[in-house]
């Protein structure tokens, strides 16, 4: 006769439980896992919220832009003159955004002056808004395009540096528009504009090419750089002289038609 099967006390206490009863060790393990998951989720949420708060505070706080406006008038004048001289700077200078913003306002004033001297009659609010939007859009769009080229060619240029360089290159636009407007008061000739655009504007475009040329190591990249700079810089200059007033006129006509329709609708509603 075989001896009875012996069961250890450990198995007897833990494994042999009544039906429907959950062992206490498993319950403790489930509670521990749930607490761990809850703590992990809380830690992830807290870490993410801290990163978001830091990013928002950096972008909201304008103190990081203050060094880019800390320049003297003498430095601004030197950078304006260097922007139309197609030579590489021997001394590295810090980038700033004060000069480009002042050039944008100057360009807007020149566009207003040119439209006032011409026979085009538009509303001041439409003209100012269109001129400011045009100058700012070109500055940002050209900077983004050239910065994308720098990333493509693996060049070590910061976006603030590209903004500063492109902004100072708009000094040539201001010079050409100012000279041509003064000359147009005496006699109207587009040949003089072409001469100023190809000389002064070409020198500023050459300065942009020299600035980005050393970051492009392949010949194909350099050819693309020259084409992009000439298209953006010279194209915008010719657009300001030949196409800006037409765009302003069309916008004014569209807004005028909308205003007339709204006035007619209001009058009809009141009369009925």
TrEMBL record:
This protein's major location comes to membrane
The record's InterPro entries line, in alphabetical order, gives: tRNA_Mod/Golgi_Maint (IPR051521)
Keyword Cell membrane listed? The answer is: yes
Give any single GO term for biological process: cell differentiation
* Keywords carried by this UniProt record: Cell membrane, Cytoplasm, Differentiation, Glycoprotein, Golgi apparatus, Membrane, Transmembrane, Transmembrane helix
Cellular localisation: Cell membrane; Cytoplasm; Golgi apparatus, cis-Golgi network membrane
Q: Which protein is depicted? A: Protein YIPF3
To which species is this protein native? Trichinella pseudospiralis (Parasitic roundworm)
Q: What is the lineage of its organism?
A: Eukaryota, Metazoa, Ecdysozoa, Nematoda, Enoplea
- Gene (name only): Yipf3
């Amino acid at each position: 006769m075989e001896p009875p099967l012996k069961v250890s006390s450990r198995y007897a206490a833990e494994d042999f439980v009544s039906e429907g009863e959950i062992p206490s060790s498993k319950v403790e393990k489930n509670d521990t896992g749930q607490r761990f998951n809850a703590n992990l989720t809380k830690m992830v949420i807290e870490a993410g919220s801290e990163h978001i708060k830091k990013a928002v505070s950096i972008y909201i706080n304008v103190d990081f832009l203050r060094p880019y406006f800390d320049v003297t008038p003498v430095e601004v004048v030197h950078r304006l003159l260097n922007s139309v001289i197609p030579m590489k700077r021997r001394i590295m200078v810090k980038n700033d955004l004060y000069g480009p913003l002042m050039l944008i306002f100057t360009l807007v004033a020149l566009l207003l002056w040119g439209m006032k001297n011409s026979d085009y009659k538009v509303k001041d609010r439409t003209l100012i808004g269109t001129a400011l939007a045009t100058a700012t859009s070109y500055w940002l769009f050209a900077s983004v395009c050239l910065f994308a080229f720098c990333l493509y060619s693996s060049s070590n240029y910061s976006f603030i540096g590209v903004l500063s360089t492109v902004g100072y290159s708009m000094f040539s636009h201001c010079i050409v528009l100012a000279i041509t407007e003064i000359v147009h008061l005496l006699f109207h000739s587009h040949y003089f504009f072409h001469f100023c655009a190809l000389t002064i504007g070409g020198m500023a475009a050459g300065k942009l090419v020299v600035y980005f040329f050393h970051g492009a190591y392949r010949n194909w990249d350099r050819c693309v750089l020259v084409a992009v700079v000439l298209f953006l810089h010279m194209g915008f200059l010719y657009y300001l002289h030949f196409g800006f007033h037409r765009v302003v006129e069309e916008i004014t006509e569209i807004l005028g038609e909308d205003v007339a329709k709204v006035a007619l609708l209001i009058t009809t509603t009141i009369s009925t």
